[in-house]
Amino acid sequence: MNREDAANQLRLTVGSAKRRQTLVVAIATIGGFLFGYDTGVISGALLYISKDLQLSAATESIVVSSLLVGAAFGGTFGGRISDSIGRRRVITIAAVLFCLGTLGSALAVDAIWMTISRVVLGLAVGGVSAVVPLYIGEIAPIDRRGRLVNQNELMIVTGQLSASVVNAIIANTVEGEHVWRWMLGAALIPAIALFIGVRFIPDSPRFLVSKQRFAEAKQALHGLRTPQEADSEFSHIHEGWQEHKNDPHIPASRFLTIRWVLMLILIGIGVSLCQQLAGVNAVVYYAPTLLENTGLAADAAVTGNIAIGVMGVIGVIIGMALVGRWDRRPMLMTGQIGVATCHLIIAGLFLLPVSIGNTLTILTVMVVFVFFQQCFISTVTWLVLAELFPMKVRGFAMGVSVFFQWTANFAVSLAFPNIAANFGSSFAFGVFVVLSLAGLVFTKFALPETRNESLEDLERKFKKRFSK
Question: Which of 165, 273, 307, 368 is most buried, with most CB under 10 Å away?
Fold first, then answer.
C-alpha cells in the first residue's frame, strides 16, 4: 500500500469512527428530545387542560411544576445510581418511565391523575438531564466533545419546537375539548424509539474502566474510535484509573467533605442556578398565556410560540459552532448580559397599554431572549457540567447539580404566574434582570475554564487548584 492509499484508508477509518459516534449520540439524545417535548408541550396544552379539567391558577401552577418535582429527584437518583449501574441502564429506565408517564398524562381525568403522571415524566426527564450529557462527555473525543455534548441541547430545543408545532397543528385541526390529550400523547412515539435504540449503544468506556471491566471498555472504544485512537485513549483512561485504584473506598456523599470536590460541586450548583434563574422556563412554559393576556386569541398565542421554539433551535446550532472556538466563561457571560437586557425591555413593555403592536414587540423580544439563552447559556451549562467533575463522583455530583437546577426550575415555574398575577408581569421580569446580573458576577469570579482538556487532565488541574 502506497502513502496515498494509506492516507485514504485513514480518512475512511476516521470518517467511520465519527459516523459511529454521531449515531450513538443521536440515539442517546432522544432522551433530550423527550426532555424538551415534555417540558415544552404543557405551555400550549395548558390552555385546553385548564378548561377541560377546570383548573384554577394555583392548580395550573401545580400541574406545570409537578414534572419539575419529579425531575429534581430523577436527576439526583439517576446521576447517583449511574455511578453504580452505568449510564446506559439509567437511560433505559428513563425510557420506560417516559412511556408510562406519557400514557398516564394523556389519559388523565382530573388534576390529581395529571399531577402524578407528570411526576413520573419528571423522574424520566431528570434522569436523562443528568445522565445523557455525562454519557456523551465520556464517550466523545476531546476535539468533538463540545459539539457532541451540545447535540443533546439541540435535541432539547428541537423537542420544545416540536411540541409547539404539534400543539399548533392539533389546536387548528382537531376539534373538541380533549385536544390536549393528543398533544401530550404524541410523546409516546419517541419514548418507544429511545427504549429500542438504547439497546444498540455501548456503555461509557470510563464507567467500564472504573468498574475494572477493561475488555468491555476497550471494545467500546474500538467501536467509537480508530484502532490507534482507541488504544491511546484507553491507556490514558487506564492511567487515570491507576492513580486512584488504591484509594480507600469512600461513599459518594462523603466526597462532600473533601474540599476540592466540594468546591467543584458548589460551582456545578452555581452554573445550574445561573441557567434556571435567568428565567428561560418562565418564557417556555408561560409564553402563550402571557401573549393571550396581551390580547391574542388562544390558538394564535399557541401558534406564536413556534417562533420561540425556532429561535431556540437556531441559537443552539450557532452555539454548537461557537463552543469549539470560544472559551466557556466568555460565552456564558455574553448570554447573561443579553438575557438581562431582554428582561429589562420586556418589563418596560408590560407597562404600556395593550395593543397588537405591543404584543408583537413582546413576542419579538422573547424570541431574542431565547436566542441568548440557548446559544450562550444553556449550551455552555450542560457542557461545563459534563466536564467539571472527577470520575469517582461524576454521577453523584451531576445529580446534586441537576437537583438544584430542577428545584430552581420548580420555584420559578411555581412562583412566576403568582408573582405576575399579584404584582404584574413587569415586576416579575424585573426580578429576572436582577437574578441574571447575579449570575454574571458568579461566572466572572467563580467559574473555571474547561475547554480543550481531557476529563482526566481537568480532574488533575482542579484537584491541584482547589485543594489549597
Answer: 273
> Are the C-beta atoms of residues 406 and 75 closer than 8 Å to each other?
yes
For 202, which DSSP code? P
Rounded to whole angstroms, how far apart are CA atoms 132 and 114? 26
- How far apart, in Å, are the Cα atoms of 372 and each of 147, 176, 356, 379, 416? 18, 38, 25, 10, 20
* Per-residue model confidence (pLDDT) at position 446: 92
d(CA 319, CA 156): 14
What is the rounded CA–CA span in Å between residue 404 and residue 195?
27
Question: What is residue 440's predicted lDDT score, i.e. its pLDDT?
Answer: 96
Q: Which is nearest to 94 in space by CA: 113, 110, 75, 108?
A: 75
Expressed in angstroms, the distance from the first to the final Cα of the chain is: 55
Alpha helices by DSSP H, 350-393 = 356-372, 379-388
pTM: 0.82
Give the tens place of pLDDT for each residue, 198-256. 999 999 999 999 899 999 999 999 899 988 888 899 998 988 888 777 666 667 667 77
How would DSSP label each residue in 47-59?
HHHHHHHT--HHH
94: its cell numbers: 428513563
Picking from 328, 236, 265, 226, the residue whose alpha carbon sits closest to that of residue 18 is 226
Q: Look at residues 193, 225, 237, 216 and name the one whose alpha carbon lies nearest to residue 28.
A: 193
User: Exposed e or buried b for every residue in 158-184, given b needs 16+ CB within 10 A?
Assistant: bbbbbbbbbbbebbeeeeeeebbbbbb
What is the spatial distance between Cα 110 and Cα 114, in angstroms, rounded to a whole number? 6
With the C-alpha atoms ordered 244, 249, 255, 259, is the resulting torsion angle positive or negative? negative
Cα torsion angle, 386, 390, 461, 440, sign: positive
Which domains does the chain possess?
A: 12-201+247-466 (1.20.1250.20)
Residues of the chain short of pLDDT 50, as ranges, are 12
DSSP 201: S
Angle at 384 between CA 379 and CA 386, to 5 degrees: 100
Three-point CA angle 419, 284, 53, nearest 5°: 75
